[in-house]
Amino acid sequence: MNYRFIALCVAVLVQMSCKQPEKGLWSKERANAWYAGKDWIRGSDFIPSTAINQLEMWQAATFDTATINRELGYAEGIGLNTMRVYLHHVPWVVDSAGFKQRISTYLDIADRHHISTLFVFFDDCWDSTYQAGPQRAPRPGIHNSGWVQDPGLAIHQRPALVDTLERYVKDVMTSFADDKRILLWDLYNEPGNSGHGNKSLPLLEKVFAWGREVNPSQPLSAGIWDWKLKELSKFQETHSDVITYHNYSPPEEHQRDIDTLRPLGRPLICTEYMARTRSSRFDNIMPLLKKENIGAINWGLVAGKTNTKYAWSTPMPDGSEPPTWFHDIFRPDGTPYSEEEVKVIRGLTGK
């Protein structure tokens, strides 16, 4: 008997059985099977109340594990199970090993609270310039007065930055490619915002290509947010394994977006909603999303240095309390903005 031949055949069969899933866009069947294995996804876009932006959250000097732990405890207490969290390439450039260790520490904390994480790589919202080191203080009463884009104007001023961004994305994603604490990679928040338009398309295309090269076990997505940006939106919907989207509109308009996206045949996760003064609230949108089996991730968990309790276009320069909070669920001490809202959330999460 040719034992060497038999051993070779066995090795080939083992290798075939351990083969990684094929690279490329997930099939609809794979995406829907992945989603069917999850509890209903509900949570918030999260940054600790002590951080004004992504840099202050992730830089070593201001990485605030005590606040992260406390505030994720608030989320767990009302039955939230997912947080959407923004990264930034600058802390990785400064100290890649330390940055990844802080990501792992964050994931440890979130996991202890039974919370999974969607990480966001790039972002076209708010300030187009940034720098490492201490971040400026919030401007009183101004929504997101210190939030920064990534990579912002730098990608146009220094085109070679794209090489750094590629190494950053691949390093972080490879390091956590099989981490079950990560739900999904949200590759680019609101591409084309802040007047970038189609100038963001090349980077959007690149980051999806980089993600496919890594081929993580988690799905890839980038949220559709402005249907008028047709070329960007079309790319997002045709290259995302799971369809994510943003909607801050009342229920009727939100339902129209759902009806538009359903024919794509993929799971849906709303990764931004809930702006009280725009009639997007927990009592009228969260039940809709649960009924439709759509992930529900609202903007804002704890009011803090981001000033997102103030509306986008209604600044209050004296820093006084807005009559109605725009975003956020809790004050820093854990007191809810609205006890009635928390009752609604608990009722929907079964907490």
Give the CATH topology: TIM Barrel
Shape: globular
Number of strands: 8
Q: How helix-rich are the residues, as a percent range?
A: 25-40%
Strand content: 5-15%
How many distinct helices?
13
Largest β sheet strand count, sense and barrel closure: 8 strands, parallel
CATH architecture: Alpha-Beta Barrel
Structure description:
Helix 4 (65-77) runs parallel beside helix 6, helix 8 (161-175) runs parallel beside helix 9 (201-214) and helix 9 runs parallel beside helix 10. It contains 13 helices and eight strands. The relative contact order is 0.14. It has one domain (31-349): TIM Barrel (Alpha-Beta Barrel). By secondary structure, the chain is of the alpha/beta class. The protein has an eight-stranded parallel beta sheet. Helix content is 39%, strand content 12%. Strand 6, helix 11 (251-261) and strand 7 (268-272) form a beta-alpha-beta unit.
Task: Give a quick summary of the entry.
It contains 13 helices and 8 strands. It has 351 residues and is an alpha/beta fold.
Topology:
Layout: H1 3-17, H2 28-36, E1 42-45, H3 54-58, H4 65-77, E2 82-86, H5 89-94, H6 96-112, E3 116-123, H7 154-157, H8 161-175, E4 182-189, H9 201-214, E5 220-221, H10 230-239, E6 243-246, H11 251-261, E7 268-272, H12 286-291, E8 295-299, H13 339-349
Parallel strand pairs: 1-2, 1-8, 2-3, 3-4, 4-5, 6-7, 7-8
Helix pairs in contact: 4-6, 8-9, 9-10
Keywords:
GH; Cellulase (Glycosyl hydrolase family 5); alpha/beta; 351 residues; 8 strands; 13 helices; eight-stranded parallel β-sheet; TIM Barrel
